[in-house]
Write a structure and sequence with these properties.
Length: about 425
């Protein structure tokens, strides 16, 4: 006997509609760390017949969509590529899309007329990623926001002039507390509650932490992570280290680290706190290197050898590329022939040299656990160059040289 979909109970049909048409179910994970997630809505179900169209339409309308419009086409590309914000509709499809609860209009005095506007549609769940991207852009390019105007229009796309519930108003508007010092800002439509708008503007008026404050906060979090690591509370340690990275505008996503707001730390010499008199850019680099060294140590403690080796190699390869770009991904090879850049960089006395020595040595320990003997040999040698007075590294290197290595002839220790 043929199966009839409409014979299913209504609650089961509703669940199927939700599974096919809701944002959370339509979301597809990013194909890799360099691209955003995507959405795939199977809208064919809306065209099955009149009853199914009527029933399933509500599931699609339960989504909360947001429209972003700007006179600059490159801004749309920037939102997707730099912010990794998934786009649901773009161009003419976005222009024709009317089922949005929030319209974000961004322009500037003297911008092209509105007839030249470019639009995109996103889901509510991705709004915070958009405002965070905007915040980082403003920090990186000081003076950006004072040239921009922002207008937010809140609406119920299904019933004109119907009041949006407070919980939804908060979700739509609170993320814009990150966007500060605009040329002008206004909120319109859908009976926005004064308390919601006032809370938003209060947050916008709160200044960003200074570079000095960011570095101080990150240092305190790093130290708290170290205490947790010593107490073998590894989950707490990782949480503190992650928050420390975030405090200096470094975000983590899987095996990717995204470094934001470079320009914010390049502006001037630091003037207060424990970093007074230091260059903000160098102070941040040193702190990042220390954090990476500690994260690798955490992975060694938990015997997550692959993670320890991955993060160590990542930092080493990035560092090596500035001296020896042709061999940036090769940690094997002959140490005396292929690793001359180690002696060169050590002779320059670069910042965080001791912490970098820890990264090399801890990565060597992970390589040892995984059986990468040649890699281990080179990394321990490099660690000794960067940390020549570290007794643990010297003793380990001496032991390795006494045991000998089938692929290398040990050079005399300096």
């Amino acid at each position: 006997m043929a199966f009839r979909f409409l014979d299913l109970p209504a609650e089961i049909r509703d669940q199927i509609y939700h599974d096919v048409l809701s944002c959370d179910q339509a979301r597809r994970p990013p194909p890799d760390d360099d691209n955003p997630a995507s959405y795939h809505f199977d809208l064919a179900i809306l065209h099955t017949n009149k009853q199914i169209h009527h029933e399933s339409k509500k599931a699609f309308q339960d989504n909360v969509f947001i429209k972003i419009t700007t006179p600059w086409s490159e801004s749309i590309e920037h939102i997707s590529s730099e912010g990794r914000v998934p786009i649901i509709a773009l161009g003419p499809a976005a222009d024709a899309f009317g089922l949005f609860h929030l319209w974000i209009w961004i322009d500037a005095p003297g911008a092209p007329p509105r007839g030249n506007a470019y639009s995109m549609i996103i889901c509510l769940d991705d709004l915070l990623a958009f405002t965070r991207m905007w915040r980082f852009s403003n920090l990186n390019h000081q003076g950006l926001n004072p040239h921009l105007r922002l207008k937010l229009i809140v609406q119920d796309p299904h019933v004109p002039d119907r009041k949006i519930p407070k919980t939804l108003q908060l979700r739509l508007l609170q993320p814009f507390g990150l966007i500060k010092n605009l040329h002008s800002f206004s909120v319109h439509g859908a009976k926005v509650l004064p308390s919601v708008e006032e809370a938003l503007k209060k947050e916008q008026a709160t200044p960003e932490p200074s570079p000095e404050e960011c570095l101080e906060t990150a240092t305190l979090l790093k130290d708290a992570g170290n205490k947790s690591l010593q107490a073998q509370d590894f989950a707490a340690a990782m949480q503190y280290y992650t928050e420390a990275f975030a405090a200096i505008h470094v975000t983590l996503s899987g095996r990717k680290r995204y470094i934001h707001a470079e320009g914010y730390y390049n502006l001037r010499e630091l003037t207060t706190g424990s970093y007074k008199g230091q260059n903000g850019h160098l102070a941040r680099i040193i702190l990042r290197v220390k954090l990476v060294a500690n994260v690798i140590q955490l992975y060694l403690k938990t015997e997550e050898w692959e993670e320890a080796r991955f993060w160590g190699k990542r930092s080493i390869n990035l560092f090596r590329a500035s001296f020896d770009p042709h061999h940036a991904d090769d940690l094997e090879g002959d140490f005396d022939r292929d690793w001359a850049w180690v002696q060169l960089s050590a002779a320059m006395g670069f910042p965080a040299q001791n912490a970098m020595g820890k990264i090399f040595y801890r990565t060597a320990l992970a390589s040892r656990a995984l059986g990468y003997k040649k890699e281990e040999w080179n990394l321990v040698h490099a660690a000794q160059v960067y940390s020549p007075h570290d007794d643990i590294i010297r003793a380990d290197l001496r032991k390795m040289m006494e045991q000998g290595d089938p692929d290398h002839k040990a050079a005399a220790m300096s």
